[in-house]
Write a structure and sequence with these properties.
alpha+beta; Arc Repressor Mutant, subunit A; 16% strand; three-stranded antiparallel β-sheet; Dna Ligase, domain 1; DNA-binding transcription factor activity; Fur_C; transcription cis-regulatory region binding; 2 domains
């Protein structure tokens, strides 16, 4: 985890920002909860446990800066809540998500499935794709196996 923090620190420095204690606390929370898709409020509550002096506005600003620098991806699963997800190191594209409509579980697909689609969009429409994300809504294996699948 320390080497990842050092690399994030270098990314910040490369964009003329410092890894302040407030930013570091926020990054640590994101790293410690990398499997989760935390809202700004979730991040704030976890940061508060580490550094009670940090305010919600500081956490919001930090998350926006990390998003701008493509260290973090800001995502919305259609429920009106923005969530933050650390971008995989070396990833040129955002990863995709599978959302279970029964239990709410979110799984990730790391491989880029849309390379051919991007080529078609670029050639047919003259549109330069910089990034994309894809979310599938359905029923996870656990819910199907336990018979919890409704007819949604």
């Amino acid at each position: 985890m320390e080497s990842r923090i050092e690399r994030i620190k270098k990314q910040l420095h490369g964009a003329s920002y410092k890894l302040t204690p407030q930013r570091e606390a926020t990054v640590l929370v994101l790293l410690e909860n990398e499997e989760d898709h935390l809202s700004a409020e979730d991040v704030f509550l976890l940061v508060k446990e580490k550094a009670p002096e940090i305010g919600l506005a500081t956490v919001y600003r930090t998350l926006e800066l990390l998003t701008e620098l493509k260290i973090v991806d800001k995502i919305n699963f259609g429920d009106g809540v923005s969530r933050y997800d650390l971008r995989q190191e070396g990833a040129s594209r955002f990863h995709h998500h599978l959302i279970c409509i029964e239990c709410g579980k979110v799984a990730e697909i790391q491989e880029d499935l849309l390379g051919d689609v991007e080529k078609i969009v670029e050639s047919r429409y003259g549109f330069t794709v910089k990034d994309h994300w894809l979310t599938f809504h359905g029923v996870c294996q656990s819910c199907k196996s336990s018979g919890n699948e409704s007819k949604k």
